[in-house]
Amino acid sequence: MYLFLALVAIIAPFMFLVLLRMSAMKGMSLSAVIVIAVAMIFWGMESNVILSSVFQGAHKTLTILWILFGALVLLNTLRKTGAVDRINQGFQSISEDMRVQVIIVAFLFGGVIEGAAGFGTPAMVTAPLMVALGFRPVVAATLALIADSAQVAFGAVGTPLAVGLSNIPGADAAFFNAVGVRITSLDVFAGTFIPFILIVIMTLFFGENRGFKYALPMLPWTLLIGVTYTLSALFYAVVFGQEFISILASLTGLVVATVTAKKGWLLPKTAWKEAMRLGFKVKTDEHTMRIGSAWMPYVIVVALLLMTRIIPWLQEFTQTAIDFTWTTIFGVEGVDSDWEFLHSPGTILVIAAIISVFIHRKSIGTFFSASKDSLATMQTTAISLVATLAMVHVFTNSGINTEELVSMPQYIAESMAEHLGFIWMFVAPFLGELGSFITGSATVSTLTFSPIQYSVANQLGLDVNTVMAAQAMGAGAGNMICVHNVVAASAVVGLSGKEGDIIRKTLIPAIFYGLAIGVVGFIAIAFFV
């Protein structure tokens, strides 16, 4: 019975959002009420713990809304300065094919953002950028979420491994790097197909002319990009360690994709534009702005994100100068919420938006106008996020109870380990996905479940590095279906209320990627490890 009760936090959102097609605001509010009731009645969580968890979720919501605002205000500012039109013209000179554009923007540029910022930022940046390039909002949000997956195992400068695996006995830099190498070696056979999967989803579900036949001609080029990303990631993991894999491999892929697309190598001659929204026209007027100037704000974003994470004194300053972190909320030990304001990707995005006004020689009023437009877009998002994160934190804090029960996520994991240990290499990535689906963080998923994965690996005599790699990769795949990421990506393209429709589409590649990880991991352990 307790297993079913613990699973309510997964079943309820799936039922309300995916099956009954409710909006996130209604579906997640109902889910939160149900999970809170289960926590109080059956799990023995006291009212002060419930209250502190709810306020922890509300505080976390502010941090996400700030990132969401930053992504929107940067894009809206660039729209008003004309930089977006120039970026679009630049893409047209590379390729008019939207299948090519989605790989470059969502998978590769999004990978750079993931490696610099993480924490759901890439989809909030790339989805509205794709809308500005002519993609229909639902296409942009769906593909931005799917694309932000393979790179998530390494996240912002290796955080999902360095923090997520920190509670494993004997964990050190050598262990993190060894797991990083194992992830990249498995991903050569699993992650290589992510670019093609993006094209398949786009051509099957979107456009007047749909079908697999519109994806198949892209297979050679997408495999080239996929192999470029995964093999270069393996090289960087072996040579440099796991901290900068997402950035370096994505940049390598970006160079190869741009050069080959511009020359038309391995690409069909007919451009596919079926994902374009009705009435969108690419501006063909001669533009005085240089392409480098148009992209400069995004270059500034990546540079500032990296500087604030790898330069020690600057990292310390941004983490401590303005700190809105809330610890021991309402006196409950361990219930905390971090918000290092200057260190937040939201702050850096806003700074880049302000700088862009001066780069593009516009008045500061352009930024304030963009801010007003951005706030209008976010109006209905806060309630959905508060409900989602309240449910998440009650779920994860459920180990603080009077019944001497482990937390709900740990109860689920232990039950899975007890009954499914004989097929654990297939279970491990989906446990990672489950953690990200609920918590919204690959780092938290790995931090929560890595001790269980470690214990099961030792009990069954499985290679620990391979099992940990499957956990981290699965956590990255869970990013596609994570509820609060979906809510944020929907909001940033003006699709609040359509979250269930998006999850129904992102669920397919999430399951496929999880299965691929399991198969490759099983083969690796059976024959090579």
Mean pLDDT: 93
Q: List the uncertain runs.
A: none
Count of discrete alpha- or pi-helical segments spanning 4 or more residues:
23
Helix-residue proportion: over 70%
* Cα Rg: 22 Å
Main sheet characteristics: none
The helix-and-strand class reads mainly alpha
Helix and strand pattern: HHHHHHHHHHHHHHHHHHHHHHH
Strand portion = under 5%
> Strand tally, please?
0
**Shape field:** globular
Alpha carbon gap, first and last residue: 38 Å
Kindly describe this structure.
- By secondary structure, the chain is mainly alpha-helical.
- It has helices at residues 2-19, 24-41, 47-81, 83-94, 98-116, 121-132, 137-147, 159-162, 173-187, 194-205, 219-240, 245-263, 291-310, 312-320, 345-359, 365-377, 381-396, 408-420, 424-439, 442-460, 464-478, 483-492, 499-528.
- The chain has 23 helices and no strands.
- Helix 6 packs antiparallel against helix 7 and helix 9 (173-187) packs across helix 21.
- The model has no long low-confidence stretch (mean pLDDT 93).
How do the strands and helices of this protein lay out in sequence?
Layout: H1 2-19, H2 24-41, H3 47-81, H4 83-94, H5 98-116, H6 121-132, H7 137-147, H8 159-162, H9 173-187, H10 194-205, H11 219-240, H12 245-263, H13 291-310, H14 312-320, H15 345-359, H16 365-377, H17 381-396, H18 408-420, H19 424-439, H20 442-460, H21 464-478, H22 483-492, H23 499-528
Helix pairs in contact: 1-2, 1-18, 1-23, 2-17, 3-6, 3-15, 3-16, 3-17, 4-13, 5-6, 5-7, 5-10, 5-12, 6-7, 6-22, 7-10, 7-22, 7-23, 9-11, 9-21, 11-12, 13-14, 13-15, 17-22, 18-19, 18-20, 19-20, 19-21, 19-23, 20-21, 21-23
